[in-house]
């Protein structure tokens, strides 16, 4: 079924400063709120599965509100899901790439149709404002469109060197059945990206969404079900990492694990997957995207207004709950004082409140997260000078923390080294550009970074010496676009998976060479 696709283009974001867009999104939120508290099944081999124990998804802006009730899977459920994935794999691996791609393209179209609804659920379940939620949905659509095209590309004959007297070919085949473990902070985009890449490559999956965002996992499973994806290709189970996640990772029949989340959990998965189990036939493949301690360098030759804007957006967009968020601003001493003055004004101007009303800064994801962030703020008070923020917000209903800035922080301070995953920024003074690069590289991470400078030579040096997977010049260090900014980090930030890039599907494929002697 040969068909020609248009070149990939990123899905345009909605502008919510346009009154009609704002009103339509607000109405969508009102509609999904009418469905709060409903119960949703797990999906195994296309069948709805219900459990005795339940998991409740909570609105972090209003913790008394139950967004949805989900089935807490047991190990028996996980076992059945993995067996269902293997059973479906025997047929799915034979489906031509162009046909597999069509399922992704239909799912992308369904997401476009349900875009405001998807945004609304995300706003309510994980506390994103309108623009952050819409960007997440757009990225999910982008992944579906991009990986559909990539699957077709990788299915084409691969070049080989001619050998006299032989007919040789080289092609890619899928790995098998694997496990998808996505995060809550990009609960649709990253979930969709990892899942659709695996499926497009011809694999089958068990998806275990984050316990903080099971609704978004259900919505993706429901969308794929609605476009006719064969039963068992995508199995959906909600459960704890300790009970279900570890069981699936360690299982001898799990062929691969795609994970995005914290360094601690990622390393645990890597270690667990590396140990062969009785009956295991392969070395499991782990595709790990982990944390960051991302830095923006503000050079003495920077446009300070642009730098302040980039730092504020990068540090406090979605409350700093992005692996790509700026948590360190490394500022040349020549402009340090002026930068700090402008930064204080910009941070104090941020509006804080319910994301359903589209405030710039909303709640953090949970009470546990809030307590962890407040702990680091207490540490920060001993390691630097508090410039702004530093408190929980008691007069708001949810898990709110003021956008916080510490200045005069030493490069080796804990708040400059450890991932906080919240709205806390450490500002560090550099003696010059060489010192700034040294400080920027002085962590165990290597995910994103940015440099603000008008000096081309300094940017050239940063291109070579700033050791991160995604480096940006004179712009924020968040907001990677599928296709334009293949995303993945170095060192303890993960396996440099480069999601949304031309190499990503290879992680879900293996090469096979076939040679035939000619008579």
Order of neighbouring strands in the sheet with most strands: 14-15-16-13-12-18-19
Which structural category do the helix and sheet elements fall into? Answer: alpha/beta
Overall radius of gyration? 23 Å
Please indicate the percent range of residues in DSSP E strands (runs of 2 or more).
Answer: 15-25%
Percent of residues in helices: 25-40%
How would you describe the oligomerization state of the chains in this entry? single chain
Poorly predicted segments: none
The main β sheet shows up as:
7 strands, mixed
Q: Which overall shape is indicated by the principal axes computed on the Cα atoms?
A: globular
- Mean of pLDDT: 97
User: End-to-end distance, in Å?
Assistant: 33 Å
Number of separate strands: 21
Number of helices: 14
Folded structure, characterized:
It is a single chain. The protein is an alpha/beta fold. It contains 14 helices and 21 strands. The strands form six sheets. Strands 14-15-16-13-12-18-19 form a seven-stranded mixed beta sheet, sandwiched between helices. A five-stranded parallel beta sheet has the order 9-8-7-10-11, with helices on both faces. The longest helix has 25 residues. The radius of gyration is 23 Å and the shape is globular. The model has no long low-confidence stretch (mean pLDDT 97).
Search tags:
globular; seven-stranded mixed sheet; 519 residues; 21 strands; alpha/beta
In short:
By secondary structure, this protein is α/β, with parallel strands linked by helices. Helix content is 38%, strand content 20%.
